[in-house]
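Q: What changes when iron/sulfur cluster is included in the input?
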Amino acid sequence: MSTEELVKEIGKLRKEKKAVILAHNYQRPEVQDIADYVGDSIELARRAMDEKEAKILVVAAVDFMAENAFLLNPTKKILIPSLYAHCPMARMLSLDDIRRYRKKYLRIPLVLYVNTFAEAKASCEVCCTSANAVKIVERVEGDTIIFGPDCNLAEYVQEKTKKKIIPIPEHGFCPTHSVFDIESIRLLKEQYPDAPVLVHPECSREVRHSANFVGSTSQIIRYAQEAKAKRYIIGTEEGILHRLRKDNPNKEFILASVLGICPNMKMNTLENIYKSLRDEVYPVTVPKGIATRARRALERMVELS
Ligand code: SF4
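A: The predicted holo structure follows.
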């Protein structure tokens, strides 16, 4: 089928089946363009809650994000178009790891980034996003906090709080954000001295410290909308450039590294979204007991933030 035919068929199926398509900011441009909502993981899951008539949510993102959509929309059918859309960082913290760290750091609260699986969320005190991580850590009781799975986000939080942050695992990281390097940014700054550098907190310390602004994808989008500069150097996954360019047609956005691409996010295509809607594959659910506890950790995040 041609792209036009696929877009048409997706539109037809979406209507017939009362489906809503959610696309993460890191998706391919053509996937973002057919989505009902484009945003970060929790933003998408929350917006889908307003879609009272929707029966199906197609989550064009990675595995843990489909779980997040299920946790906040348990009565809807959640589909992920590709079974290969895994997040390697979420896989760096298993339930066994958490049990081991819990034993080691008895009675210390555990704050988990939403980039984790539901079973991990179910065993923490509260979740956080990259946008609210500092606020959540500040508001959780205790002077010491165990924090996972991204050690760069943990270190970023540590720089902003007087509490002691213990990263678990010690070296959890996002392979995509770890490719941004200080040397490429230095060269780009020389070439475009007028361009502010905007990076995600999952980037390394050196990269964060070289930036004018550190924030989540939604915060980077907002910053670029509100700032006066005509050109920006961006240190997060390249899919965000499509959104930034669409929202700001008169501004220029330069990716800080050509390698800043998440292959897992790119597993979703128009073809598999079409098949996902047609055949209602691949359903994502979370067992009831785990879902109840994981949802509680997400609700706590909302209360605290
Ligand atoms: S960009 Fe990083 S955190 Fe996000 S899905 Fe890809 S690997 Fe996981």
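Observations recorded in class: The chain has three domains: 3-86+265-285, 90-174, 177-255.
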